Amino acid sequence: MWATARRMASTTRSASSAALTFELVGKCSTTRARASILTLPHGQVNLPIFMPVATQASLKGLTPEQLEATGCRLCLNNTYHLGLKPGQEVLDAVGGAHKFQGWNHNLLTDSGGPMLLTPEHSMSLQNSIGSDIMMQLDDVLVTTHPDKARMREAMERSVRWLDRCIAAHKYPERQNLFCIIQGGLDLEMRRECCREMVARDTPGIAIGGLSGGEAKDDFCKVVATCTEQLPELKPRYVMGIGYPEDLVVSVALGADMFDCVWPTRTARFGNAITKHGVLNMKREMYAADFGPIEEGCGCQCCRPVGQEGSLGITRAFIHHNAAKETVAAHLLTLHNVWYQLDLMRQAREAIIADQFPAFVKKFFVGLYPDGQSYPSWAVNALRGVGIELLGR
Amino acid sequence: MTVDTEPQEPESTAMRFEVVSSALKESTAAAARVGRLALPGRRPIDTPNFIAVTSRGTLPHVTPDNISKHLQVSGAYFSLEDFVEKSQQNLSRPPPIFSAPTSTNHPTPLYSFTGTPSHITTILAARRLPAVPSPIGNSTKSISVFTNTGFQNLSTTDYLSAASTLEPDITIPLADLTNNSPPGTSPTSKRALRMAERTDEWIADWFSSPLSTSTSTFAPVLPIPYPIQWEYLSRLAEDYIPSSQLSGLAVHDPDIIPDLATHQPSLLSLPLLSLSNPSNPHLILRHIALGTDLFALPLINAVSDAGLALNFTFPAPPSPGAPPLPLAVDLSLPSFSTSVTPLSESCTCYACKSHHKSYIHHLLQAREMLGWTLLQIHNHATMSAFFGGIQRSIKDATFEDERLSFSRAYDSEMPAGVGERPRMRGYQYKSQGGEENAGKKKNKPAWQKELAVEDDKVEVPGTDGGRELQEKGVGEVVKGSGR
């Protein structure tokens, strides 16, 4: 440890493409974690970042103003859903999804997936949406797909589709198109895909096809394999990742951006994400619990009464209305989104201060107070980048 | 008239109500009037005005930060039955709200449990507004209330003790109401007489308890003819006004106000809160013309749930000879899909400043909860502006003329709203026998969308896709409830 623990030289380096600047502002001297600033057409965002998902141009009951107050500056819309409702014509008439939903910060859209038939159609819709980051149409197979030949075909098709997406993309000067690395769990195929995709020089790079039920060990290997090969001065986005442990480990493996519907969906089921794990507020034990949703949390619901903007929301009130009044879902959504964004803010600060390994250990002790029963996939993945969770 | 300079009564922390100006000379006539209701520590309420109606302690769809930032509402109606359900897992647990700790920001358990901003005047009643009819009658010392886990009895002593613990600014004591008869029908005269007798007895018990001093009391005025409840009302006037124990009246039917003016004019020195649930602004104006000061308006929540944006002003815009305008815009209609104008041109609410019809139309189509939130913000703002206009016109002595113009300018009823409502919860309705078989389910089944009644567009318009599954987290508990 001591041998490698050296302060990072303050060599801020950056790279730009037409509609994006990526500035690396800190690197962990132990792991592959990075802190950076991504400047997009609708402003600057700090990486690593969690991006909440506003599937149908609305973040589950929050006003854009409330979402902004959580610190969110980049959220997702789903292309497929917006293509159905309100539809491309409306988006064109209104002038894009930012105007449509009253969101003046950045948007990222997925490709629309296999429901959209062609790369051209996907690009056309995403151009109408006007998202700051667009995703290429890719051919996604579940990573556990047994047919290697089919997996290769999907990977190669994704590369070809990227070329078609690049050709069909109308506004490269104001919208960024990210490629998506495919290749299932086959690390060699992933490497090959990385080479092909990187050669196309998109402004950012996503690692796709994961979070589809593969073993966590395999997931980590894929992320680590890809980040090892990706250019340093481009943002790396691991798609569909949202559990706090997954975020922290993926950051350690060198990924920068994540999205997942889980934090907002689980809020609607009455679940609160906390540093000690997920709490189901519908349980009887919270009925007369007048503490905040999470002690020490800085979200509007939880911050101590008397602080600016504090709402003084108790677990008892959430219990009282969970699955009854929509307000309970809105409050838990506020909390959960804050939790996810704050986790990434803390990771970022730790990386810049070169304290990231200590942050990771503290995070895992919060979830596993005995300091023992850590999931083995996390222990292994972190060991691979120089953090030893067990012992000492 | 000037709230600050009046000589202070012995209880200087008590509620104060001043009539500032009235359409008629005396403030005890049945006539439109402007006043100010002030409770210690709360934002004063200029009247005529309305208070928001909460459900389970919250304004539906609006979080407390949005209430503080975006609504001008200064009062809220709470029902005790929303808080006292028996826990099915823990039958012996007392309702948690009674032990909620207080703080400077949340000075009573009612505030701290619900997170209600402290500038809001809190008004507690036993039952939701409108109340779900109870098949069980009231008894000599208790009424039947409907909780999330079913019907239960609420005794007069339990209610008194709840009010003294929760310390709402204003409490409406129990009334013996016939909640089991269909709306619009009046009780038999024998029943009406007993309603008056019981309510009279309960009020006497209420005021004889020292517990009742922790809150200002608005005594119920029953929805029965004056001659049947005259004894009760004269006791209110003759015993409890002189003793300063009575602070206001909770009027179930404002049409009784002229009788009060004739027979018990001193009662009209009190603020009059209407619980009559008017279905449109014309009725509100009529009740204001009779002297109503404050309205609890469940109408607004219902209108928002129906996908409607209120669209009227007082005074009405001049439009001689033009056909009447609709009172609300139905945002579920496809014609709004590309409309980038605000919900209402003259409105300055958050929803109108930040969003447009097209987006709210989309949110309703997609059943995104934000649609109802934005409509609540707009509809409460529209109602605030409406009452502001009424206050000005009473001061300017133009109220009656403007009321007439308003009645000509607008449709007489609210549009129905073709949109699909949010899922109904168990505490919001009691399914009637046979309803389920008659295809009158309150909620569309989530799993059998294809079987949804196609031709009944008002209740169940078609929707698509898997979102409904996502939304089930919020809408899980839909089973009949409460039996």
TrEMBL record, chain A:
The keyword Zinc belongs to this UniProt entry's keyword annotation: yes
Domain of life, source organism: Eukaryota
SUPFAM superfamilies: tRNA-guanine transglycosylase
UniProt keyword list: Zinc
Domain tRNA-guanine(15) transglycosylase-like: 31-364
One Pfam family per UniProt: TGT
InterPro entries per UniProt: TGT-like_sf, tRNA_ribo_trans-like
PANTHER family: QUEUINE TRNA-RIBOSYLTRANSFERASE CATALYTIC SUBUNIT 1 (PTHR43530:SF1)
Full protein name: Queuine tRNA-ribosyltransferase
Organism of origin: Podospora comata
UniProtKB/TrEMBL annotation, chain B:
Subcellular location: Cytoplasm
Superkingdom as given in the UniProt entry: Eukaryota
Entry keyword annotation includes Membrane: no
Record bears the keyword 4Fe-4S: no
Comment on bound cofactor: Binds 1 zinc ion per subunit.
Composition-biased stretches (Basic and acidic residues): 451-474
Entry cofactors: Zn(2+)
Subunit composition and interactions: Heterodimer of a catalytic subunit and an accessory subunit.
Identification of the protein by name: Queuine tRNA-ribosyltransferase accessory subunit 2
Organism annotation: Podospora comata
Phylogenetic classification of the source organism: Eukaryota, Fungi, Dikarya, Ascomycota, Pezizomycotina
